[in-house]
Design brief:
Length: 92
Amino acid sequence: MLINCTELAVRELLPEVLEQYKRTYGQICTCQRCQEDIMALALNYLPPHYVATEKGYILTNVNLQQLGGRTAVLAQLCHAAQKVMENPRHDV
């Protein structure tokens, strides 16, 4: 089992960020391509946290769920969502 806990956190928090953008800006594309672009951009600016055991997953997941880790992931997701919203790679 090889897992990037940062990627799991990004996938988990993405719906929350998209919902916030919908409330704030009224419109953001949530198609598969835009969601993957947002995740890719965010992950490029976040450090990976790979684990190979269940114990490592639990410990790393706890660290990412703490305020600092969650805030860093949310910040990068918001930054990425803004970029994708302004420059979608498809016709709007």
